[in-house]
Amino acid sequence: MTENGKPKFGMYWASGCGGCEISVLNIGDHILDVDAIFDVVFWPVATDFKYEDVRNYPDGYIDLCLFNGAIRNSENEEMAILLRRKSKVLVAFGSCAYEGCIPALSNLTSKEATLRTAYLDNPSIDNPDGVLPQPVTQLPEGEIDIPVFYNTVKSLDQVVDVDYYVPGCPPESHQVWAVLQVVVDALLNGADLPARGSVVGAGTVAVCEECPLEKNVKNITRFYRPYEITPEPGVCLLEQGILCMGPATRSGCGALCPQANMGCRGCYGPLDGVEDQGARMLTAIASVLDAGQNGDTDAELEQKLDEVLDTLVDPAGTFYRFSLAHSILHRARIGNGASSNGDGQGDNS
Q1: E-assigned strand segments in the chain
Q2: Structural domain contains residue 118
Q3: Which residue in 320, 327, 198, 212 sits closest to 266, CA to CA?
Q4: Are 137 and 227 in the same domain?
Q5: What is the mean pLDDT of residues 20-26?
Q6: pLDDT (average), residues 111-132
Q7: Over residues 42-63, mean pLDDT
Q8: DSSP secondary structure letter of residue 41
Q9: Cα–Cα distance measured from residue 207 to residue 256, given in angstroms and rounded to the nearest whole number
């Protein structure tokens, strides 16, 4: 506790879009309760705190820290290690911290290819000298240092120990408030916290279980991208050939995307006991494909299955959009067959 008796709150934004920061504000009037209950001691996006402030805090000084964003560079990693040491409860807040999310899709390629796309092979870039960002640059005014850009994006728990996970891209406002209430009840009233390592504020069943769309027998003969078809109202999107990650995704969002005729993208991550969300979805898809007929030879059946699967655009980016860093795959193997970790050394992870 601080001198005024309030528990101390921190929040940090690593490699992500910032939506998780906004989601905290989306709790509406409860943001006033947060201010009344907590003493905010680190929240750079909202107040003027410096890294040096955190370095000067005693270890364990922050009661609750919400860490959002993946570990993309050396600054992210440094802050993850620092905030772990300074925090009693460290929460991987949102999909990027939990599973790597969109930033981790660059694990399908290399650091060099990512930088080349951003700074060289880009029609909107004016860079005639082909300059790429460097960690250290000498200028007449002095030396400029920027974070080292890593080859592999990692989730927060691949760098430090994490106490709890809050999924979502971003987490829904009711979920954010529920998590804050749980921690406050423990800090102020002595209530028990959930088991360490738990996913908190979300459901325990698949999104399909909370989706109101009518579900019948699924027999998929092809897949459609959203712009290619007008879905029949009130009917399961997957049954209509629109890829929906609902069967492989944890509930808790209220099935918001399917109700807006957009298939679930999987941002709440896998269900309990599922190690690889993408593999779980592949299994679900395989069980409902309707290709071929009695009497087909193996070659004919294989051809028909390939034709159906050819209508599924970008399988890796679809099945692992939010979970690649946390999956069995982790990243693509490049060059000599070895993957590469953050410092550029092969690690086969």
Answers
A1: 8-13, 39-42, 62-68, 71-73, 87-93, 136-139, 142-145, 149-154, 164-166
A2: no
A3: 320
A4: no
A5: 91
A6: 93
A7: 94
A8: E
A9: 10
Structure tokens at 205: 């069943």
**Nearest CA among 272, 271, 273, 264 for reference residue 319:** 264
Q: CA 104 to CA 247: how far, in whole Å?
A: 22
Task: Verify that 241 and 338 share a domain, yes or no.
Answer: no
Residue 127 placed within a domain: no
Beta bridge partners of 68: 13
Mean pLDDT of 121-130: 92
Burial 282-311 (b: 16+ CB within 10 A, else e): eebbeeebebbeeeeeeeeeeebeeebeee
- Are 62 and 9 spatial neighbours (Cβ–Cβ below 8 Å)? yes
Q: 286 pLDDT exceeds 50?
A: yes
SS3 state of residue 47: coil
Q: 43 Cβ partners below 8 Å, 6+ apart?
A: 9, 10, 11, 12, 49
Whole-model pTM: value is 0.90
* Six-digit token string for 283: 């299994």
The predicted structure's pLDDT at residue 254: 93
Task: Tell me the C-alpha distance between 89 and 62, whole Å.
Answer: 8
**CA 160, CA 44: separation in Å to the nearest integer?**
21
In a domain, 117, yes or no: no
Higher-pLDDT residue of 116 and 287 is 116
Residue-range definition of the domain harbouring residue 70: 1-109+133-202+333-349
Does residue 28 surpass a pLDDT of 80?
yes
CB 9 within 8 A of CB 40: yes
DSSP letter assigned to residue 224: B
d(CA 97, CA 156): 5
CATH of the domain at 186: 3.40.50.700
Choose among 149, 175, 163: nearest CA to 267: 175
Six-digit token string for 49: 């705190």
Look at residue 285 and tell me whether its pLDDT is greater than 90.
no
Q: Is 106 exposed, middle or buried (0-12, 13-18, 19+ CB in 10 A)?
A: buried
